[in-house]
Amino acid sequence: MQNEEQKQTEQQNINKNWLEEEADALNSSASSSFDGEMLPALKLEEKKITEIEIDFNKSFDEWKSPEGAIKKIIPILHNGEKKVFWINVRNPVYKEIIQKGRNGQTKFKILRTGQQKNTRYNLVD
Hints:
Elements: H1 2-27, E1 49-54, E2 61-64, E3 70-78, E4 81-88, H2 92-102, E5 107-113, E6 120-124
Antiparallel strand pairs: 1-3, 1-5, 2-3, 3-4, 5-6
């Protein structure tokens, strides 16, 4: 019986440790460094073309996951409403957006296919 109580106490300590670490991380300046305008995220529907206009006037804010992934937070105009489009910098569409923006293009059409880990974005001309 005491063995069972020891295991339970050890598990509670493990839970407490990671929860304390997570709380500290959330309170740290690194996690809360985003000071941009809080806007709704663009939600793309599967197999539907969505038209957006990207604001290239300033560099995009970024968010880094604990695992090291970097997402850019792109300010857009969608159906007359200011929103943001979150995209991983390793996504090929991000590179396309940057190249086309460099050439002066601001209006884009995006097609989303797939779901969850199979989600793909494509720019449509």
